[in-house]
Give the backbone structure.
Amino acid sequence: MVLRKIGLRALLLFGVLAIGVLVHNHFYISSIEAKNPQAGSITQVNNVRTHVIRKGDAGPPVMMIHGAGANAREFNLTLVPHLSETHQLIIPDRPGHGYSEGVADAQTLAVQAAQMGGVLEQTSGGEPAVIVGHSYGTAVALRLALDRPELVKGLVLLAPVSHDWGPDKVAWFNSLATVPILGAGFRQLMPIFGPAQARAGMSHSFAPAPEPEGFYDEAGVGLMFRPSSFHANAQEFAALRDELIAQQDHYQELKMPVAIAYGSIDLDAL
């Protein structure tokens, strides 16, 4: 009888905590989306709602593909101010990030590239574009160039993720977030614990250079901690090594110019 009462109390406490988490998440999502509303337009790409930011009215087209745990806003304080007066900038949210809808098998680079190629077909006026990829976005840019070379005039790869980096490199929280059932519960904790951890580690992402003032807010980093976005990001990381192994031997097939920029500390991380 005593054990039964303890079990009921524990179940009741768990239920109360779960409701509290869900209520917190509802307000977090509403708040972070109000602070970082859609900055572009929604278009249908392969029957998937895709958010695309456009900057600049003249000049050659440039597509920018954001990295992991990010969205199209990540370029706002860096490249956009320097290029928007001389280029047509096409900056989509990748599937499941920002305000783009998720899509089946988005953890594969082929699907990611197909979505980016679909955006280009609708926005570049048929003109091949220079593709700028950052971090995970470079893997997508490379796959786009392999699968749809007619759409790609050149590649600019920033802090590229392009080759197999060896085993045991997926962070524990990304691995846990993809576990069936348990992962679903874990992802609900991200709006509670994720933002503070991200803010604390932001300076490390830019070291040894200083973090751009206001980057966390201007880049909409907090959108990543919506459970659905965190899940999309974790699935990408879980599949990335196998995806790179499958495509890295084909880079010699690329015929367009490729520029690569990275920091010395980036090399230590690869």
About this structure: The two ends are 57 Å apart (CA to CA).
